C-alpha cells in the first residue's frame, strides 16, 4: 500500500468516522462506510486529486446518503454502551438530531461538526447554497422546538 494513503488514513480516519456517525447515527455503519471509502480511494491511482481530504469527505457523504437510503430507521438510533455515564441532555440532543430528516441532519453535521461553509456543503450535497441555508435554518428551528 502506498505510504501517502496510509498517512491519509492515519490522520483523517477518526474525523471521517465521526462525520459518518453523526450523519448515520450508528458508529458501526460509520466505520464500515469510511473503510469502504478508503478501500475505493486506495484501489486506483488518484494523481488528479488536488485535495484528498475533501475528496474523501465527499466520498463519505455520498456513501452515507446511499447507506441512509437503504437502511430502515431504528429506534433508538444512538446507543450508549452499557456502563457509560452520559448526561441526559446529550442523549436528548443526539436523539433529536437523529430525528431530523436525513438532508437536514447532513446539513447540520457538515456545518457545525465539520465547520464547512455553506457553498462547500452545497457542493457536497449536490444542491444550491440557498437550499443548504434553508435546510440549516429549518433544522435549527426543529431542534429549538424539540429541545424547548
H/E series, N to C? HHHHHHH
Low-pLDDT segments, ≥5 res = none
Estimate nothing, just give the exact number of structural domains: 2
Q: What do the pLDDT scores average to?
A: 84
Biggest sheet, open or closed, and with what strands and sense?
Answer: none
Strand tally, please? 0
Characterise the protein shown here.
With 148 residues, this protein is mainly α. It folds into two domains: 1-74, no CATH class; 85-148, Winged helix-like DNA-binding domain superfamily/Winged helix DNA-binding domain (Arc Repressor Mutant, subunit A, Orthogonal Bundle). It has helices at residues 3-24, 27-43, 52-70, 88-99, 102-113, 118-125, 129-147. The protein is globular and about 50 Å long.
Give the secondary structure arrangement, pairings included:
Elements: H1 3-24, H2 27-43, H3 52-70, H4 88-99, H5 102-113, H6 118-125, H7 129-147
Helix pairs in contact: 1-2, 1-3, 1-5, 2-3, 5-7, 6-7
